[in-house]
Design goal:
With about 170 residues, the protein is α+β, with helices and mostly antiparallel strands. The chain has one domain: Gcn5-related N-acetyltransferase (GNAT) (Aminopeptidase, 3-Layer(aba) Sandwich), CATH 3.40.630. It contains 6 helices and 7 strands, in the order βαααβββαβαββα. The longest helix has 14 residues, at about 100-115. It comes from Lujinxingia vulgaris.
Length: about 170
């Protein structure tokens, strides 16, 4: 099994992330967002982490962890404190189906819950993406509601700390 690690995403990653944005599987999962990589990778607010996943040194995915109560766009609306929200995807198509997504999510969840006050994690796949929804359900996320975020109709899921720790 290859070594998987995260490193901070930097402005040097803009071309890589733009290329991944054009991949059909990324487009299908996130069709209406412009991440504004050039601007966002220059910012480092204390409520957000942006990471590149590498398998044996090769970039294979992206992860963002935010505090939804504190992030500046208010994407999640009014949120209780002590939550985290995740965005995560595999970039290159040849890295799909190799277990990287599960390993990335497990590392991300463990990272979130390493902060003692974090009570739960939110995630919002497209409601129509049944394969991804089953993936999150296998990771013990519980469906909360369907909700529109901009142009995207999503399924909101939540993972409570106690549920993760009891696995």
């Amino acid at each position: 099994m290859s070594e998987l690690r995260f490193r901070e995403a930097t402005p040097d990653d803009v071309a890589l992330l733009r290329a991944w944005d054009e991949e059909p599987h990324v487009q299908a999962a996130d069709p209406n967002d412009d991440w504004q990589w050039e601007e966002e990778l220059e910012r480092n607010p204390d409520w957000r982490e942006q990471r590149i996943a590498e398998a044996d040194g090769r970039p294979i995915g992206f992860m963002q962890i935010i505090d939804p109560a504190r992030e500046d766009s208010h994407y999640w609306g009014e949120c209780e404190p002590d939550l985290r929200a995740l965005d995560i995807w595999i970039g290159p198509a040849d890295a799909l189906g190799k277990g990287y997504g599960t390993r990335m999510m497990t590392l991300a969840i463990d990272h979130c819950f390493a902060t003692p006050g974090v009570r739960a994690i939110l995630i919002d796949p497209l409601a129509s993406n049944h394969r991804t929804r089953r993936f999150y359900e296998r990771l013990r996320f519980i469906f909360v509601e369907e909700r529109d975020f901009g142009e995207d109709h999503c399924a909101v899921y939540r993972l409570e700390r106690e549920r993760w720790e009891a696995r």
